[in-house]
């Protein structure tokens, strides 16, 4: 395991220090407990958005803190949900009096820690709502599992809800919008290689030269099944098919197509996947109104991709297009 | 051995737990890598290290359990942080007012803790979680006569419970995403739960 | 070699098709010969910027086409300079009457192909100037080599000159600015892993688990020397030292610090490197006025990083901050 | 064998060159991977494939060389595209007006081509480039009596020249970035130049 680190237990703190040094104009980094807020937090009268999760998914979430997106992010240890004290401190730091929305990826650890933090924040008089993102269609029988995981849809929810909060929507409306995004987005991913958590020092699984993990999450865990490697076009089909089958859409719907890199896959390959995914979407009568291509929700250096498809309405479209000024996503200002 | 669990014995327990978790950190993380995300050992090592650092000299078992619970909640993260944290917090509530616990009191306290885990995790036994080690441990503690027997029986039952998770298909936590692929591997949380209860049996010996 | 591709000889064309599908609002992709122009090219009366080089360095250059940066990019085969006909066609397509600046990374192939294209374009009556970027301090005795390579500084030159061209500066002024950027920027990189060119099908070199290539370029080639792996802090020092030694700066100078990812290195590690590089710059009395962190000039999936340091003046600062709207870099609009 | 290089023989040369480059594509790229970027084989394979596809039936050697040069320039890319391209373009200029080339004319034409490479690449022999194969080939061609001898001698000299690049430290092209690490490997461009000249000797046999 060769990594540009100094020590496994310093990875998160030192990366946060680097973020502070690089993006002091946009964000403020707090230590002990660790959280990142936008530089001008709290914004009076604005609903605040807080998210978080394990580190190692960068730019998610810390890179999405800033005007038009998150007010705060809570980074846990690598691939480990943050603790309630981080979330509580972040929640209090960004509450501008209009309440705080917790955007939580559906993993047991994230859900439990955010739940505890929300209870504590409410005890301290902060209005908190939580929305769980669970867009991963790789998880099939959600009755017999912890439910679908939150993956690529999280990025889209954070952006769109950030736009709505910035526009002055109230807590109930932003939370409702977040649920709407979540129920209109579906995602699925695959890994060509494993990744290595610094603490573990070795890859989380091994794959032969002709094997891939299909239906992976973002924590270096094995996927739903191990299959033989296929062409990019075939793999794009295999990801798009269950997504489209699951997403209640009709012909002529406008969609946002998001081809995400898991970390180790170069952009040139992501564009090859995008090309085919767009073709498939069009063949289903969908109009690709917006697109996003790149490593936005990653699994350290894992090679692989995930595809997310979001059915847009005018409200989502408007807030997707709204200005955003964060280290990881920026336009319109 | 003493017939009561008092603050010195409980303190010894947590020190022993810290040592044992540190020694098996890689093993626990490897179990987690197979069906989860490979951090369980690191999570608990971080947590119990913080526990022994923070423990100080609590007034009674209730205060001790509360400190342990809050420290785990504040340092572990992941699923196991709130779960083990809730367990100790609930044990603290159940131990309120007692300066030491006899066998029966310990069984009640442990039961309250395990109920806390089940409530927090919305889980039942058979779903391949720490509950599969903890639930039989409560039953064993209740059925034993005397503290020494109760602690040994609980540790042994937890170990068997953890071993029984190998054949289970996970229904809770991130191992559940693997569906049938989760079978054939011991659950890391059940394994660490058994470890904690053997640490107690050892520390009280 | 597991890659999300369909066939080695379709990689570039299919990725270009993906870029066209994803970014039709910003860019236009032309085939046979292959080049990318901004959607509204040619812009009447504006100096046009054309760059290009082998594919596999994405987002460079195609991802930097758009308002405020490049007018056109010419992608060659993976790691292979484009041919003169591509460059000529791109040059003619974006010439808005105010002349065209070729921004060329200093590799024999790039220089020769751009040179031939410039000669042909001049024959056809287009005003063309070329500036060679050669910022890589890993190349020491430039007398006995093809000269220093163009690496990270290219991104900064393209952005800053794009700003100046957009602001209406004339060809001579934009070219002069480009030379100024080039003479004020120094870069150096290292690789933790090799990368695999699709056509080759195997890594370009092999490294032991404790070895790295120090002083690498961006074409998967071996570096200046092979050394033992070190901590992130030590490696940041080893990169910064020759950069600072070579850059004529004085205390209190304002700099732009750019920590680039070569492709396979996650953002969390780049921030750890940024943190240390920023510390070192500050210890030399430099003020980090601007920063850039991320995979902007890559070597396929190679793990590693490069650091670039640009000494800023007010003109460079102004055009760095100017709006840019490209798939790969975007702010201010 | 014929004592003149005319369009049919030159056409046969380029077909043979295409075959030989295709067969050694991996070898040439491997040489390039060691001290460059590993694309030399793919570059030339693409180029000579395009050449044979585009060649058609040129009127005379000059037209043929020009088509080859322009096609290589338009399809190869990298350093070798403009270099080999310039070589053939210059050969075309030197062959102007001749319907076929005898040994002396060929030596002059080749010399003009090699001067084109040197001018384009601003290189001299000894810098570990294709010139280290091409320059001795010109000398050998000039010194030989008769076309057959000239072609064999040129091919042989090119091969020896390419082999001699192994011990050289590169001063031009991307291999030069390796400094002393470039020694111990044959230069890919010199190797491909030798290959092209053996293809000619074979085709004219
Ligand atoms: N809902 C649940 N109820 C009880 N225990 C659970 C639940 N979900 C997970 N666990 C336990 O948590 C363990 C995983 O802990 P850990 O690896 O530290 O957290 P994470 O899964 O967030 O990485 C599992 O092995 C399991 O025993
Ligand atoms: N300046 C130069 N003059 C002559 N030949 C050169 C020069 N630079 C490079 N070459 C030749 O080009 C070869 C490399 O060609 P190729 O790999 O196709 O291009 P690139 O180096 O751009 O990848 C080298 O082996 C060398 O023989
Ligand atoms: Mg975890
Ligand atoms: Mg885990
Ligand atoms: Mg090349
Ligand atoms: Mg090459």
Q: What does this protein structure show overall?
A:
The complex is a heterotetramer, with two copies of chain A (333 residues) and two copies of chain B (205 residues). Chain A has 333 residues and is of the alpha/beta class. Chain A has two domains: 11-183, Dihydroxyacetone kinase, domain 1 (Rossmann fold), CATH 3.40.50.10440; 185-311, Hypothetical Protein Tm841, Chain: A,domain 3, CATH 3.30.1180.20. Chain A contains eight helices and 14 strands. In chain A, the strands form three sheets. Chain A has a six-stranded mixed beta sheet, sandwiched between helices. In chain A, helix 4 runs antiparallel to helix 5 (171-183). Chain A starts with 10 loop residues before the first helix and ends with a strand. The model of chain A has no long low-confidence stretch (mean pLDDT 96). Chain B has one domain: Serine Threonine Protein Phosphatase 5, Tetratricopeptide repeat (Alpha Horseshoe). Chain B is 68% helix and 0% strand. Chain B has helices at 7-23, 25-35, 40-54, 61-75, 80-94, 103-121, 131-143, 147-164, 188-204. In chain B, helix 1 runs antiparallel to helix 3 (40-54), helix 4 (61-75) packs antiparallel against helix 5 and helix 7 packs parallel to helix 9. The longest helix of chain B has 19 residues, at 103-121. The radius of gyration of chain B is 15 Å and the shape is globular. One magnesium ion (MG) binds next to loops of chain B. One adenosine-5'-diphosphate sits between chains D (32, 36-37, 39-40, 43, 78-80, 83, 117, 121-123, 129-131, 172-174, 187-190) and C (80-81, 108-109).
């Amino acid at each position: 395991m060769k990594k540009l680190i100094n020590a496994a237990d310093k990875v998160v703190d030192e990366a946060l220090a680097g973020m502070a040094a690089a993006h002091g104009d946009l964000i403020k980094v707090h230590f002990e407990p660790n959280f990142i807020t936008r530089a001008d937090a709290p914004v009076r009268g604005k609903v605040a958005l807080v998210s978080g999760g394990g580190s190692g998914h960068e730019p998610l979430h810390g890179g999405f803190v800033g005007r038009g997106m998150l007010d705060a992010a809570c980074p846990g240890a690598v691939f480990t949900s943050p603790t309630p004290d981080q979330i509580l401190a972040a929640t209090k730091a960004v509450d501008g009096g209009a309440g705080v929305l917790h955007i939580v990826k559906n993993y047991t650890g994230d859900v439990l820690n955010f739940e505890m933090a929300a209870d504590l924040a409410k005890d301290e008089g902060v209005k908190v709502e939580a929305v769980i993102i669970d867009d991963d269609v790789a998880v099939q029988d959600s009755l017999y599992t912890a439910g679908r995981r939150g993956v690529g849809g999280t990025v889209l929810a954070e952006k769109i809800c950030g736009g709505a909060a910035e526009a002055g929507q109230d807590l109930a409306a932003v939370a409702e919008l977040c649920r709407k995004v979540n129920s209109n987005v579906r995602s699925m991913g695959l890994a060509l290689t494993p990744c290595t958590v610094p603490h573990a020092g070795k890859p989380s699984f091994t794959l032969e030269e002709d094997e891939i993990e299909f239906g992976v999450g973002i924590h270096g865990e094995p996927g739903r099944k191990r299959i033989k490697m296929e062409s990019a076009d075939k793999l794009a089909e295999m990801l798009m098919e269950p997504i489209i089958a699951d997403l209640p859409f009709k012909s002529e719907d406008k969609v946002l197509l998001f081809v995400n890199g898991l970390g180790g896959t170069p952009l040139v390959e992501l564009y090859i996947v995008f090309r085919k995914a767009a073709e498939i979407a069009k063949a289903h009568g969908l109009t690709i109104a917006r697109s996003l291509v790149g490593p936005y929700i990653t699994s350290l250096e894992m090679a692989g991709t995930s595809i997310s498809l979001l059915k847009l309405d005018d409200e989502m479209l408007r807030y997707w297009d709204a200005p955003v000024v964060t280290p990881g996503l920026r336009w319109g200002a | 051995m003493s017939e009561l669990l008092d603050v010195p014995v409980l303190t010894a327990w947590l020190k022993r737990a810290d040592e044992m978790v540190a020694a098996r950190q890689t093993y626990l993380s490897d179990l987690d890598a197979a069906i989860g995300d490979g951090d369980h050992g690191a999570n608990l090592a971080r947590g119990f290290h913080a526990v022994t650092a923070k423990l100080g000299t609590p007034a009674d078992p209730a205060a001790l359990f509360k400190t342990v619970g809050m420290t785990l909640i504040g340092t572990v993260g992941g699923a196991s942080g709130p779960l083990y944290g809730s367990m100790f917090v609930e044990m603290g509530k159940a131990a309120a007012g007692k300066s030491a616990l006899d066998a029966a009191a310990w069984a009640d306290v442990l039961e309250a803790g395990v109920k806390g885990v089940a409530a927090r995790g919305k889980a039942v036994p058979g779903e391949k979680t720490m509950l599969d080690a903890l639930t039989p441990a409560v039953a064993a503690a209740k059925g034993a006569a005397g503290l020494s027997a109760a602690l040994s029986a609980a540790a042994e039952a937890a170990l068997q419970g953890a071993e029984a998770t190998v054949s289970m298909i996970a229904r809770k936590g991130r191992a559940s995403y693997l569906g049938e692929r989760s079978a054939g591997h011991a659950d890391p949380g059940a394994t660490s739960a058994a470890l904690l209860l053997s640490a107690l049996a050892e520390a009280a010996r």
